[in-house]
Amino acid sequence: MASGQLVLTVLMGVFLVGVAAFLSRVEDWRSYTPLASGGGGGYGEAGAHVHREKPAGITRWLTTVDHKDIGILYGTYGVIAFAVGGLMAFLIRLQLVAPTGAVVGNEFYNAILTSHGITMLFLFGTPIIAAFSNYFIPLLIGADDMAFPRINAIAFWLLPPGALLIWAGFFLPGMSGAQTAWTMYTPLSVEQTNVGVDLMLLGLHLTGVSATMGAINFIATIFTERDDDVTWANLDIFSWTILTQSALILFAFPLLGSAIVMLLLDRNLATTFYAVGEGGGPMLWQHLFWFFGHPEVYILVLPPMGLVSYILPRFSGRKLFGFKFVVYSTLAIGVLSFGVWAHHMFTTGIDPRLRASFMAVSLAIAIPSAVKTFNWITTMWNGKVRLTTPMLFCIGFISNFILGGVTGVFLASVPVDQVLHDTYYVVGHFHYIVMGAIGFAIFAGVYFWFPIFTGRMYQRTLGKWHFWLSMIGTNVTFFAMLFLGYLGMPRRYATYDFNSAIAPLDMVTLMHQAASAGAILLLIGQLIFVWNILQSWLEAPKLEDADPWDLKETDQHGREFQWHERRTATALADGGEEEEAVTDGGEVVDDDADDTSDD
Amino acid sequence: MSLADDTTEDHGDHGGHHLPAVEDWPRGFGEASWWPFITAVGAAGIYVAAALFVLGRAEDPLVGPMVGPAATVASIVLFLAGLYGWLYHAFVVNFWERGTDHHSAHTLRLAMICFLGSEVATFGAGFVYYFFIRAGAWPPENLPHLLGSLIVINTAILVLSSFTLHFGHVALRKGNRSRFLQWMAVTLTLGIVFIGGQVYEYYEFIVNEGFTLTEGAFGSAFYGLTGLHGLHVSLGAVLLGIVFVRALKGQYSAERHTSVSTASMYWHFVDVVWIFLVVVLYVGAEIGA
Ligand code: HEM
Ligand SMILES: [Cu+2]
Fold first, then answer.
1. Is the pLDDT of residue A476 over 80?
2. Is B7's pLDDT higher than 50?
3. C or N terminus of chain A, fewer CB within 10 Å?
4. pLDDT at A583 over 70
């Protein structure tokens, strides 16, 4: 019946091509350019004249559909998740200072390891990016609000219950946190009888639904809500990265959702989706998970790249070098990131030809990443660099991203990966990116826009302490991990009491202790960050200057600061006399300002 | 209350600029609404209910076995109440004075396209599983008899419903409301008949042939995919039902038909998935066996 299958395949192909052709006709795709859609701005304007007071107290936050409020909600949520995930990480590092494990039992170690990964990726990473995109995308594209303000609110409110479900295993009696690692590989995750796993899977699915709703909203907003004078040609770089990210979310998260539902069914209703032997087996889970998982890492890194591309030129006094190529490389990464997933599976015994092709694409994806890196460096080259806190974090981002990216290229090469897979080298690689790059870009964004969020300025000395502690802490911790990988230390172990005759136990112990020492620096840095943000928000003097970074001078006064200026102008009309605020590098207000230009 | 009256007379004075849903709750704040919060709590409640259900099945259960199902019902009610409040205030209540807004029609259609894109991924994972086992040893031991008159008729019904829906939409755009209503009624009936056919097929398989969800690798694929599709058809029928009711109440016109077109995009999509599903899952399972 081979011919029968062939005929069927061809017919199906023709049918699908027909569907595609029909789709291309049914929608007038070009109508989404602002010129053709005519009343683009009019819609937003209509609402703008109406006064819009908000209810008071807690009701305001529960009922808000304003994108800026929702951005703040996302931000608060993300920071809380960051604190929870960070404390878990700290416990992990504490445990590993001694080969036999210093503080917790193995099971609990596994649970916090799993929860740390899930919390940081799904409860901190995606939401904190959504905080920035919610607050700023409408301002940057001149929209009145998101395309669907209420869907926006729903998407946020799905997150807190999601977090509770994910963490439920820890505090409900009779169960423990899931011990599956964030990758939830089967058959382990099918066979683990702990109900905490089911709750975590349900919570993950819920956060995935939230992310997908957000993505649809951002695509619709960026396509249809742009002001008349915001075209594709002058759309800012942050919006481009959010658009690409949303497209990735659109295909990645629902797929994970279905994979999770199948896992839940296997666990609870005796289906055979991932059953070893007759079902899809462990390989099915790995394919599905990484088809989501690799795009997920770019879902997390593209918007931070956008933040850096947006902020860095503003403290270099120059336009972003090769703007177009930064946009193209963003789109290229978006497309390629769906074609590299099997580089996480090089050691599973998949077909060597598959391995080779995935290696090729994985190496290729380094090219657009490198394009960006060179563009950032060139932007600073000969620029009037002002080393403000946000700029320091941008530069730290580049430095850490290079280390993370280069180690990624090594891992993408099959023979190297076969040695380093599932060692601490991998942990070092991705932490250079998720903490050293993504985290840093988030900090840069918080400091850069702090005047817009709060109308005040943070304390710059504390900001600098935060930067240097984070930078040194990151590099101590994660460089030690790279080295541990070379020493052959496997990842995810709760103890490492090897036979020192066959393993360099002293060296391994020392490196683990170094990593933990770095973690202490990181912890202190983040405490300073939280203190700085909270105290400055509550007590810092009001900023009267609506252009605290002196962006007008270099003609880089973006739409969000223009909006801020209009808002400040109206607010000042009803009298705001307070002491003069000190800016970080914008105007030199007092004489010990150390932010002079660097040449 | 009668929608038609409500929309034409009472709210006329809002005139040129008004907020999306002035009459909303809490009242008087165009920028605030309880509905998203309620909808989200309802939706999250469904997940919590699933969790309670799992908890109730554990060996040493934390909660009684009926807590889960009860919470499910309560959450769904809350969820639907939230959706109703939201959609009613945002789209239905002052349907006519919102003006013919081509812009927001575009936005809604684009959002529907994005949603359908995400649906491709949702279904994709299930199909990948099926391809995995299909590429392995085939046929499995207990492959039921899949291709019968029922599936042919049911497929024909669903495909036909896409056409009738399209005719209805065209009639509306030509301004022929009564024709539109007739085609909508036909489409809805066909959709419900299709769901009935699926239920009947499940009944046949489960009760008469003993082919169940836990019946091995193909059972998971079959019930997983047809179940997921069935959920989608049911949701599609609900959407068409809403459109139909609104149409009966006098809404929609040749210029104002956004939700008709988004609902039909969804319906056509579900139809296309079904064709793909029948070819690979029904025909494809038997053809090499
Ligand atoms: C420059 C391009 C990159 C390449 C070529 C690359 C390559 C790789 C490879 C081959 C692995 C698998 C290592 C193994 O398990 O043996 C890996 C793991 C990983 N990468 Fe990358 N990577 C790149 C960029 C990134 C970025 C930007 C991120 C994060 C945003 C990231 C996050 C991760 C994560 C989280 C893992 C570990 C997954 C796990 O097993 O838990 N990578 N990378
Ligand atoms: Cu990857």
1. yes
2. no
3. C
4. no
The DSSP letter of residue B32 is B
Q: Is the pLDDT of residue B2 over 80?
A: no
Q: So what's the pLDDT on residue B82?
A: 87
Cα-trace Rg, chain A:
25
**Nearest chain B residue to A61, by CA:** B32
Tell me the helix, strand and coil percentages in chain A, rounded to 5. 70, 0, 30
What residue type is assigned to position A436 of the chain? G
Query: In chain B, what percentage of residues exceed pLDDT 70?
Result: 85
Across the strands, what pairs with A423?
Answer: A490
Cβ A290 under 6 angstroms from ligand 1: no
If you compute the radius of gyration of chain B from its CA atoms, what whole number of angstroms results? 22
CA distance linking residue A379 with residue A316, whole number of Å: 7
Q: Is B36 on the interface with A (CB under 8 A)?
A: yes
Q: Is A217 on the interface with B (CB under 8 A)?
A: yes
Q: Integer distance in angstroms from the first to the last C-alpha of chain B?
A: 59
pLDDT at B14 exceeding the cut of 50: no
Residues of A in contact with B166 (CB under 8 A): none
Tokens linked to B86? 């939201």
3-state SS, A492-527, equals CCCCCCCCCCCCCHHHHHHHHHHHHHHHHHHHHHHH
Considering only CB atoms, B54 lies closest to which of A55, A220, A268, namely A268
Please state the φ and ψ torsions of residue B142, each to the nearest 5 degrees.
Answer: -115, 65
Structure ipTM: 0.89
Environment class of A149 (CB within 10 Å of its CB; exposed 0-12, middle 13-18, buried 19+): buried
Q: How many CA atoms lie within 13 Å of A375's alpha carbon, on the beta-carbon side?
A: 26
Cα–chain center distance at B268: 12
Structure confidence at residue B26 (pLDDT): 63
Angle at CA A331, nearest 5°, toward A329 and A337? Answer: 95
Distance (Å, whole) CA A282 – CA A137: 40
Which CATH architecture best describes the domain A61-540? Up-down Bundle (1.20)
Chain B residues 85-104 with CB within 8 Å of chain A = 86, 90, 101-104
> What burial letters (b/e) apply to A553-568, b meaning 16+ CB within 10 Å?
ebebbbbbbbbbeeeb
Is the confidence at residue A37, as pLDDT, over 70?
no
Query: How far is the CA of A308 from the CAs of A75, A238, A302, A322, A438, in angstroms?
Result: 18, 9, 10, 14, 10
- Both tokens of residue A112? 């916090």
Which residues of chain B are within 8 Å of residue A148 when distances are taken between CB atoms?
107, 111
Distance CA A519, CA A90 (A): 7
Q: Token pair 């396209």 is at which residue?
A: B113
Q: Tell me the average pLDDT across A334-341.
A: 93
For chain B, list the domains and their CATH numbers.
1-99 (no CATH), 102-289 (1.20.120.80)
Check if A430 has its Cβ closer than 6 Å to any atom of ligand 1: yes
Residues A45-55, mean pLDDT to the nearest whole number: 47
Q: Which helix (H) or strand (E) holds A597?
A: strand A597-598
- φ and ψ at residue A598, rounded to 5 degrees: -120, 120
Residue-wise pLDDT tens digits, A502-559: 778 999 999 999 999 999 999 999 999 999 999 999 998 888 888 899 898 888 888 9
CB B106 within 8 A of CB A42: no
Under a CB-based contact definition with an 8 Å cutoff, are residues A551 and A558 in contact? yes
Give yes or no for a contact between B252 and B211, defined as CB atoms under 8 angstroms apart. no
The SS3 call for residue A109 is: helix
**In 3-state terms, chain B is what percent helix, strand and coil (to 5)?**
75, 0, 25
Report the Cα–Cα distance between both ends of chain A, in Å, rounded.
Answer: 74
Rounded Cα distance, A525 and A464, in Å: 10
pTM value is 0.88
